[in-house]
Amino acid sequence: MSMSNKKDVKRWYVLNSRKDSVTIEEQLKMDGIESFVPMRYEKKERGGKVERVYTPAIPGFVFAREQRSVLADFIKEMWAMHGVKVYFAREHASSQDMGSQAGMSARQIFQNLDPLIVPDKQMEDFIFICQQDEDKIRYLQPNEISLVPGDKIRIHGGLFDGREGELIEVKGMKKKQLVVRISDMLAVAAVNIEPKLIEVIERRSEKEDKQNADSGQATALTEREVREYVDSLNELAENYILHQDLLADKADAVVRMKIQLNRLTGLVAKDKFLKAGVYVSLVMGYAATDRPSEMKQWKEKALHFAEKLPESIFKSEQRLRLALALNDTDCLEKAKAFIREMPRPLSIKGNKLVKKCESIERFLHNKA
User: Fold this and answer.
1) 218 domain-assigned
2) Distances (CA, A) of 261 to 88, 202, 256
3) Same-domain check for residues 248 and 355
4) Which of 4, 119, 137, 216 is the most exposed place for a label (fewest CB within 10 A)?
5) 95 vs 116, 306, 326, CA distance in Å?
């Protein structure tokens, strides 16, 4: 969760009310405010019969994406016009907060806390998972999951391609699951994900190392740092190969790529997704800096490990980079085949992949 900023921009806030969540959501939509209420089926007894009832997963809570000031006006309007009390759900009070506000009532401390904000990516993943068939997900109460944060993961391939969350233990389940957690109110798990589709973005031990480190200089690169270098080198190399005639300072671009190459050359990544990403990035960097002998050293590894990945947007991105660096039409055609099979309408990442493919295909056609 993040704290609110001075800038009043649209963000996902959590609203709370004793009124039915669906009623609040309907009013938000009437006011043109984007909103979401996670729903699920529950068995309830009515008139001696057990029925399946479609009901909010967390009664009284509604997610709304709007400027804080607009939602504050909505809250006032709900009370003035409908007699319904709606509140911002708040960040938790730490022991430090409680100690620094001695003499204040619990209500006053609560009102001084920042409204709870859910980052866009986290909310996007949460909504996506909530909208899947019930046999593929499970809503979790706070007592059903570990309070200890788990490894941060990303899924590549399958129904949950591109989704991020934590890999944590769930009560009553043998294996750890992908969980998207919204504070301590609710979490949703995407169940039965194949291990081969899971990429570890950041291990819990790395988070602890960062918090406990006495200095800012790490003795070894964390997976997140490696990923940042890979992304930086890919961006520099792609831009250089595709648009070098338009670059104002080619020498500076080459120097920056060489710095990233020096950081990545010789690294051994354990995670298969990161390993493929590093090798492909090295091929890109050496191709862009016109060092064919070094590029050849990594070419076979890049092709091998990229092809071992499950079919996904990430795998197609690697194929397109190899197509660009190696002038490899086979990699290009495989990426195009994956794009043709992608479900429509395309996601934001899917649209980006299509644009990247079109740009690289034009470049290779003109080059031929």
Assistant:
1) no
2) 47, 22, 9
3) yes
4) 216
5) 18, 48, 57
Of how many residues is the chain composed? 368
Task: Convert the pLDDT of each residue in 232-288 to its tens digit.
Answer: 899 999 999 988 877 777 787 888 888 888 878 777 677 888 889 999 999 999 999
pLDDT tens digit string along 17-61? 887 888 899 999 999 999 999 888 888 887 788 888 888 888 888
User: Residue 121: phi, psi to the nearest 5?
Assistant: -65, -45
pTM of the full structure: 0.61
For residue 91, the enclosing domain spans 11-117
Distance (Å, rounded) from C-alpha 166 to C-alpha 122?
A: 11
Alpha carbon distance 51, 36 (integer Å): 25
Burial class (CB in 10 A: 0-12, 13-18, 19+), 272: middle
> Which tokens hold the place of 156?
């590549």
Kindly state whether residue 253 falls inside one of the protein's structural domains: yes
